[in-house]
Amino acid sequence: MAEEIRVRFAPSPTGKVHIGNIRAAIYNWLYARHTGGRFLLRVEDTDLERSTPEAIQALMECMEWLGLDYDEEAFYQTKNKPRHMEAVEKLLQSGHAYRCERTSRDGRTGEVVMFRMPKEGVIEFDDIVKGRMAKKAEDVQDFAIVRSDGSPIFHIANVVDDIDQKVTHIIRGDDHVENTFKHICIFKALGAPVPRYGHLSMIVNAQGKPYSKRDGAAFVGEFRDAGYLPEALFNYLLLLGWNPGDDREVLSREEMVSLFDLGKVHVTAAKFDMKKLQWMNGEYVKRLPKAEFKAALVKSVEAEGLKTDGVDLDYLVDQLQVRTKFLGDMPGNCRYFFTEEYEFDPKAVEKRLAREGVKATLLDLVERFSKVEAWKCENLENTVKELSQGNGMGPWVHPIRVAVSGRTEGPGLFEMLQLLGRERTLKRLADAAEKYCP
RNA sequence: GGCCCCAUCGUCUAUCGGCUAGGACACAAGCUUUUCAUGCUUGUUAGAGGAGUUCGACUCUCCUUGGGGCUGCCA
Questions:
Q1: Which of A63, A148, A157, A282 could crosslink A68 through cysteines, CB 3.0-4.6 Å?
Q2: Residue A218 CA to nucleotide B45 C1', Å?
């Protein structure tokens, strides 16, 4: 039987999950799901100040939001400290480590434990994404594995945890390549099998530097709060460094799992393109089941303390879904359907209402619309068509739109009027004529 | 400075020696049209530079240039 593949996502719970980090999680998850292996979570909570229960909670929420479910119980690094120290003891006894007086960068002096690097030979490994990697042992310095306060340092904790969690493939950020040469030596010194490695390129900004919060939204939570759909973020991040080999871009989770190939992940850094993410989100919003979109609409409306009574929501969804790029745009882009306290865009008023003759036009429309028998968009459209006599409906359509919605864009005008209903339409036309027209 | 890695449209990318270099985002134009979108059609834009290998190189090799990573008692 083939060895079971076990990968892990090992974030430090700092309260916010960076997109570069979550992309590593995505690739790990996909690799595990594709190969039928296990995706493990290890919380590297050794930084006691930042590792609060709230931070861990936030991390878990981000993973759940993206559908990154993990197998087995979450592993907490702090709980494995005895094992870290056991390993250190073993290294000390075998001569792979030694105690040493040292002064740290920030001026602390004390006795630390150093790992002894081999002094000759070549350390090499086959990186699943970067290919053959090699480095002369002499180019890697000895490094500390236990602080002067007795606490284990990342390098030893990381390796011991990977051994204890039986991790077979370590898929992590590019910034760890240099560490890998060190870690391989630790695995060997401990007599443990060296796992396979795959190093992921970084997500960078327009300047080619690592993408950070200075460049825009950089944490998963920010995208969630901005109204991005988890599947859209997931899909976009996946495409940033991998593709199925054909022109498909919008992929279902099943397709992703079956097509994903770690060996085809790109070596080069990828620039984060918010515009394309936005497009991707629009694709997912369009594909959302109507019921789901409707639920989001209702939720957003009620969140503002408004009621959805009296509005044909299903018909509104038909009109709205195709022109909504972010669920977060609601209810802003359709607020006027649910309240009489909708805002008027000053520019729209200026251009479409505050003109000579518009008042008469609107009042005339009130007259004509009130005679329409069935309040259906076709009938309303016919009414205006009669007025325009085939010369274009602009002179009527634009003022009506601004009068009833306060804005210049939105669903088809007559669909909009149908949704608003006769009473509200007539009142809004009359009120706007009074309030904004000369 | 030292070590490691990388290099196709503005961006994400296809190409695994045969290329009139394809797709997507963005941008522009057109169609549809009452607006904004959607949808459809079309267009502009790419192989960093130089050697070599080869019948043939974007694809392989080397150099140069440019970019990035690492060089902690951070992870």
A1: A63
A2: 30
ipTM of the shown complex? 0.94
Q: What is the pTM of this model?
A: 0.92
Amino acid A226 CA to nucleotide B48 C1' distance, rounded Å: 38
Q: Identify the CA nearest to A34 among candidates A203, A131, A133, A169.
A: A169
pLDDT at A2: 62
DSSP state of A102: E
Instruction: For chain A, count helices (H), then strands (E).
Output: 17, 12
Specify whether the CB–CB gap between A384 and A361 falls below 8 A. Answer: no
Alpha-carbon span A243 to A239, nearest angstrom: 6
CATH number of A346-436: 1.10.10.350
Average pLDDT by stretches of 10, chain A with 438 residues: 86 90 96 97 87 91 96 95 97 96 86 94 92 91 94 95 97 95 96 96 91 91 92 96 93 96 94 95 94 95 92 94 91 94 92 91 94 92 88 90 94 95 95 90
pLDDT recorded at residue A362: 94
Task: Among all protein residues, pick the one whose CA is nearest to the C1' atom of B22.
Answer: A247
Q: Which CATH number fits domain A1-73+201-287: 2.170.190.11, 3.40.50.620, 1.10.10.10, 3.40.50.10900?
A: 3.40.50.620
Cα Rg of chain A, angstroms: 30
Q: Which long-range contacts (CB under 8 A, 24 or more apart) does A354-359 make?
A: A354/A436, A354/A437, A354/A438, A355/A437, A355/A438, A356/A438, A358/A399, A358/A433, A358/A437, A358/A438, A359/A433, A359/A437, A359/A438
What is the C-alpha to C-alpha distance for residues A13 and A55, in angstroms, rounded to an integer? 5
